[in-house]
Amino acid sequence: MTLSLSRAQRRFLGLMGEEDLSDLVGINTPLEMSSAACAALLNYLSQGMAYRSGPLFGYRGPDRYEVTHVLTGTPPGEASEEPFGLNPAYLLGASEALRQVDPGLDWIGHWLMVPGGQMPSDKVARAYVRQAAQLELVDMVTPLLIMGLIDFAPGAVASRWLNRQPRVVPLIWHLD
């Protein structure tokens, strides 16, 4: 029997299990954002006072890379002074709840909004990707989505960490 562990279990509980390499994403596979994920991110953007970040849950495979759920890294009411603040107990519980609804769901990416809600410059965005990579939140298959306002309109960029450099991932937004 093979034990299928979630990314949260491997990260926060230190459990080892066989890693499923069938979910490796093609390097040019776009990151698709479901309409529910887009709505959640736009809602968080409208609150843009402090750092907001958290896991992106969804599905990934060789030809599929879809975000269906957006969570914060901390429970409601618990703010973080750090860009990538995470509450392990909260994230483990949320991950388990989502996987009970659909065992195929997992933490496939991370998102960030900076205080004030403005989109950071390219240089600053690359620094955030580097910081997320150092925290092992992003890698060659797990992107960081940075979202903010550009001239009063929402904007976003997603990047993976590949060969010690950020690499932009194409984005598809479903705003139905």
Protein model, in words:
By secondary structure, the protein is α/β, with parallel strands linked by helices. It is 26% helix and 30% strand. It is built from 4 helices and 8 strands. The protein has helices spanning 7-13, 35-46, 88-101, 122-134; strands spanning 31-33, 52-61, 64-70, 106-113, 144-150, 153-162, 165-169, 171-173. Strands 7-6-5-4-2-3-1-8 form an 8-stranded mixed β-sheet. The longest helix is centred in the middle third of the chain and has 14 residues, at 88-101. The protein is globular. 32% of the residues are buried. The mean pLDDT is 83.
Shape, principal axes of CA atoms: globular
Order of helices and strands: HEHEEHEHEEEE
- The oligomerization state is single chain
Rg over alpha carbons: 15 Å
Strand order of the largest sheet: 7-6-5-4-2-3-1-8
Extract low-pLDDT stretches.
none
Number of helices: 4
Strand content: 25-35%
Query: Which structural class should the secondary elements be placed in?
Result: alpha/beta
Mean pLDDT: 83
Helical amount among residues, as a percent range? 25-40%
N→C terminal distance: 41 Å
Largest sheet: 8 strands, mixed
Core attributes:
176 residues, alpha/beta, eight-stranded mixed β-sheet, 8 strands, 30% strand, globular
Helix/strand layout:
Layout: H1 7-13, E1 31-33, H2 35-46, E2 52-61, E3 64-70, H3 88-101, E4 106-113, H4 122-134, E5 144-150, E6 153-162, E7 165-169, E8 171-173
Parallel strand pairs: 1-3, 1-8, 4-5
Antiparallel strand pairs: 2-3, 2-4, 5-6, 6-7
